[in-house]
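A brief tutorial aside. Many learners find it easier to grasp structure tokens once they have seen a single protein encoded end to end. The record that follows does exactly this for Fe2OG dioxygenase domain-containing protein. Read the sequence first, then the structure, and try to relate runs of similar tokens to stretches of the chain.
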Amino acid sequence: MHLPAASIHVFPSFLSSSSCISLLVSCSVLSNWTSSQTSHANFSTKDISLLDHTSLMEQFNSTDVYDKIEEAYKMIPSRSNGRTNARSPLSFLDLFVVKYTAGDFDELNMHRDGSLISFTLPLSEEHEGGGTTFECLQDDGDDHDRVLVHGVNTDWGEVKNGTVHARAGTLVVHSGKMMHGGGKVTKNNRYVLVGFLHVESKDEDMFRLCKRLARFDAPEKRGYSAEDLLP
């Protein structure tokens, strides 16, 4: 079993179908979608930032996201478990909706994020293809023990050929240092909410792993396991 920091965490039904549709409708009426590398220096995406629009941020409860990520990475007891005054060590570096279009901007090459923790949350299902591809899942073959599904909902999606295909509303959290990319969309549009998070505390095992390795791709290739990297 992999350490929580070296795993991909799945939270099914994080957003309802109606919430996904509402957020998409709100984004569709805005004209300032970007397709430059202004905010994402190494990889251009066609996106719109929620941080620039109060109306969009009001539709997204960041506290709920923080709770799930704190649970996944065993940071601090979540506020939902009684720590109502606890201050989260998490904050957003960026939060944006990406639009993939078949035949246009239809995929994103393999890369690492600038953030320590990242997440994707699909907002649509009318497309074909897509998904998030992880190098470590391609290396694992049919052994997907890196994918940890939280809760009892088993109808969250699937892992196929190293790609996580999650249903709309499913929160997929991972270290931004994992090598990953956006699978090619072959039909219609795919919309995904993407978040990059800063972690204030530096005493978690994922920080120690990052310091020693700088990524969580496939440490077995280098002759040791993720657990061996802990001091």
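Self-check: Helices lie at 17-28, 54-57, 62-72, 135-140, 205-213. If you spotted this yourself, you are ready for the next section.
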